[in-house]
């Protein structure tokens, strides 16, 4: 995709996520790899009101080379790209149910593999990294270790970060993660029938 197509797609996907409540206020940020480096949403911008001419431009070494100041989560985005070679785009959201899961004190798998699309888009399990304040560079090593396990990571008391081969696939996976977290809450007090090991393996294969 050309630079201008990527800009248009980033704005469209940001608006779509915002309009459907996956992001509120100025929470969340998006980035996509370009021929010259990366395009990223500006810090303190709303995903619902991005503009193609007002996106942060970073070079291959993540130096800010044009446009407004990038999101404060550059360290997190960079960690995910550098850990996952297939990553061409990264979506970070504070969507409600994933963030609710991220605040649970319980240990163990946080979102069960109940549906095929969870397994297909997100994987069998989603690792969680401990809490760091937004924008902290200290999350780097733990996030790299978690991102090595799969395309989606839960950030304790914060939200999610998800990689994809395109902006669309990263956004689809982030939405699937959010809906799977909703299902986990809806079914919290019910006897559930998770996918079997064979069913999960068939989807992963
Ligand atoms: P930015 O406005 O700097 O992108 O930060 C928003 C956010 O989601 C922090 O986690």
UniProtKB/TrEMBL annotation:
InterPro entries: Aldolase_class_II_sugar_metab, Aldolase_II/adducin_N, Aldolase_II/adducin_N_sf, OtnC. Its EC number is 4.1.1.104. It is an enzyme of class 4 (lyase). SMART domains: Aldolase_II. It catalyses: 3-dehydro-4-O-phospho-L-erythronate + H(+) = dihydroxyacetone phosphate + CO2; 3-dehydro-4-O-phospho-D-erythronate + H(+) = dihydroxyacetone phosphate + CO2. Its cofactor is Zn(2+). Residues 8-185 form the Class II aldolase/adducin N-terminal domain. Keywords: Carbohydrate metabolism, Lyase, Metal-binding, Zinc. Catalyzes the decarboxylation of 3-oxo-tetronate 4-phosphate to dihydroxyacetone phosphate (DHAP) and CO(2). This is 3-oxo-tetronate 4-phosphate decarboxylase. It comes from Nesterenkonia aethiopica.
């Amino acid at each position: 995709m050309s630079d201008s197509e990527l800009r248009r797609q980033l704005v469209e996907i940001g608006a779509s996520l915002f309009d459907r409540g996956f992001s509120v206020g100025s929470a969340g940020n998006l980035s996509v790899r370009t021929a010259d480096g990366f395009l990223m949403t500006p810090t303190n911008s709303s995903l619902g009101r991005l503009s193609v001419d007002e996106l942060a431009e970073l070079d291959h070494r993540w130096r800010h080379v044009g446009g407004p100041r990038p999101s404060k989560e550059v360290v997190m985005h960079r960690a995910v790209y550098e850990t996952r070679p297939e990553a061409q785009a990264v979506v970070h959201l504070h969507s409600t149910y994933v963030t609710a899961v991220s605040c649970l004190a319980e240990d163990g798998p946080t979102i069960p593999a109940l549906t095929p699309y969870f397994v297909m888009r997100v994987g069998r399990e989603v690792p969680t990294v401990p809490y760091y304040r937004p924008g902290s560079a200290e999350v780097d090593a733990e996030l790299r270790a978690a991102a090595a396990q799969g395309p989606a990571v839960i950030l304790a008391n914060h939200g999610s970060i998800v990689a994809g081969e395109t902006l669309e696939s990263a956004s689809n996976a982030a939405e699937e993660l959010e809906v799977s977290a909703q299902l986990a809450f809806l079914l919290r007090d019910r006897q559930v029938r998770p996918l079997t090991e064979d069913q999960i393996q068939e989807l992963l294969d």
